[in-house]
Amino acid sequence: xxxxxxxxxQPPEYNETQCTGSVDPNFGGGYGILEDLEGDERSGGRATSxxxxxxxxxxVSSRWCDxxxxxYSGTCLxxxxxxxxxxxxxxxxxxxxxxxxxxxxxxxxxxxVCSADGTYEPKQCKGPVGxxxxxxxxxxxxxxxxxxxxEQEELYSTMNCQCSRLAWAREAARDRTATLHCALNGNxxxxxxxxxxxxxxxxxDAKPYGQRLPEQAMFLLPCYNISEVGEQYLRRxxxxxxxxxxxxxxxxxxxxxxxxxxxxxxxxxxxxxxQCDYDxxxxxxxxxxxxxxxxxxxxxxxxxxxxxxxxxxxxxxxRAPDGGEAGTYGVLQKRGAYSFCVDEDGVRAxxxxxxxxxxQLDCDLALECQKGGSYSETCEKVCKKxxxxxxxxxxxxxxxx
Length: 401
What we know:
- By secondary structure, the chain is of the alpha+beta class.
- Among the domains are: about 120-270, no CATH class; about 270-325, no CATH class.
- The chain contains 7 helices and 14 strands.
- The protein has helices at about 85-95, 155-160, 160-170, 225-230, 235-255, 300-310, 365-370, and strands at about 70, 75-80, 125, 135, 145-150, 190-195, 195-200, 205-215, 275, 280-285, 290-295, 330-335, 340, 355.
- The longest helix has 18 residues, at about 235-255.
- It is globular, with a radius of gyration of 24 Å.
- Residues about 1-15 and about 20-65 have low confidence and may be disordered.
């Protein structure tokens, strides 16, 4: 897209069809073919080009701006509403350079890592220094499969999220036939099988090596480990889902509509945290053991189970929007004599304050601050009218008041 500048004082007219920009082909969006003439309803008016020398379509552009940019009066400009990675990063840098931070409040914001096109890099480490937890995210910064706690040293240090991002892209393109296996941190597992063929891939650089062999001969590959893989590639959740898809296809071939399936599997082949039937959603562990009712998500329930398994004593408050117990994080958390706000992943999104001041915390402003909100209008007001002694860093004794 063309170079962008600051938005003019008067907001220009927003019209997406006036701009030409790139769209990642992995996501299947925005590209037309030769028959989709400009303005045709099937193409949404997307620009196309003549076929290449081999007779196939050769699409060179589409009428969309890149991530984090909006189309204003024919020019791709920073999208103030979308607030992409560059927007959040720049607001963070401005606050740091402007000396907005006060030491006793601590720097609870985190600086996102942006790619050259303004999207979020697949791996993002969120949280204050010393507390950061790493997550895999999509180009817009939304959390996807793959994470690592600091204490998971190998997963944490080698994390690159390449497998998780690819799995997300295929799901976004509605490709549900893929059988990628991702590690818990979003990296590729060494052994991969797709469409009946297996091969090895280096988890650190995501590059395949060696030869490809039929799935029946996967045990001959150097990366095959029977204690990790077993005798078949597909895992329990995948096998259940695959068997249903085969049955559905056979019934459909005979002119019968088969039963639908609501089962969800994660990219490591295990059961997704949230499973829903037609009446209710529930939280489960990776092996389909019930963790309770879900009201909007299951991240807190899964984290709570992790801490229990690691025998780590930590207070976690899982709450539903209606105040009941559920699998999502409550926005206000307590640890001993301290209280603080968290985001949907349970990462601290505000200053540590003495518990006696928790009623003065505004967690909505804390979350807005993390998204690049004005420091003076959001971050500075997270703890309303709090004196310096309200903050944990300025009050090590931090007694209840």
